[in-house]
Specification:
single chain; alpha/beta; seven-stranded mixed β-barrel; 6 helices; 12 strands; 22% helix
């Protein structure tokens, strides 16, 4: 038992010597949110004058940096946040850098050709990975206006995944999950037929994390993503604290 404890302590010590990067936005009532959601409410219900300090929080489950389990979009898969395996919330992290193309054209979508170009430089995406799309959209936080990037007609403009790219990372490379910095999986101007990319991900048994931050501070490969989330009953989504660890 003492030897096991020593090994655990050594592991913790080694982990603490590595680089840690928070991939999570701090969020509040004025933070960017999906347009259909009401602003969050943070209300103080007890103060130190009462003997303890307590706030009451009201917000949609998909608020701030958050996780989407399969049931969020796919009614025939009854896996809620609480049903996700703990081991599937700690994964090798792969970051596909798309920020230059996103800056040049916010209506663009990551393609299979983009991924293959990335793989020429970095090697094949390892099976079981969490694949994150870096667009640097997270740098627009905490402005709702900059995040939505609406035109004069009210159309949002922000980048996303193509359906073909998602199929490639899951069906060819056998990723476990994916994430991005924007509100949606799908490019904003390509949602005329709904969120087909997000539906594909969740209807095929995967989960995703949206509104990630600081992907530019993590190496393209070699990091591990850790996703810490509360366990509310029957939650089809909830805010997370996601972070990366690497040498």
């Amino acid at each position: 038992m003492a030897q096991q404890l020593s090994s655990t302590q050594e592991l913790i010590a080694k982990l603490k010597q590595k680089h840690w990067v928070d991939l999570t936005h701090t969020f509040g009532p004025a933070s960017p949110r999906f347009p259909s959601f009401k602003p969050a409410k943070f209300e103080t219900i007890f103060t130190h004058a009462d003997g303890f300090f307590v706030k009451e929080y009201t917000f949609a489950g998909q608020y701030g940096t958050h996780i989407d389990p399969p049931v969020h979009f796919y009614k025939d898969d009854d896996r809620y946040v609480e049903d996700l395996e703990l081991k599937d919330l700690v994964l090798p992290l792969v970051i596909i850098d798309y920020h230059q193309k996103a800056a040049a054209n916010p209506d663009s979508s990551l393609t299979v050709a983009d991924i293959k170009d990335w793989e020429k430089q970095n090697g094949p995406i390892p099976a079981g990975s969490f694949v994150a799309l870096r667009t640097d959209w997270g740098k627009r936080w905490p402005s709702q206006e900059k995040f939505a990037n609406k035109d004069k007609n009210g159309q949002n403009h922000y980048p996303g995944w193509s359906l073909e790219a998602l199929k490639y990372i899951y069906e060819t490379r056998h990723a476990t999950a994916n994430g991005h910095e924007t509100f949606d999986t799908d490019t904003a101007t390509k949602q005329q037929n709904g969120l087909v990319g997000e539906y594909y991900v969740l209807s095929h048994g995967h989960y995703q994390v949206e509104l990630l931050d600081n992907l530019d501070q993590v190496p393209t490969t070699g990091a591990v993503i850790n996703i810490s989330v509360a366990k509310p009953e029957k939650a089809p989504g909830f805010p997370v604290r996601a972070y990366a660890i690497f040498d």
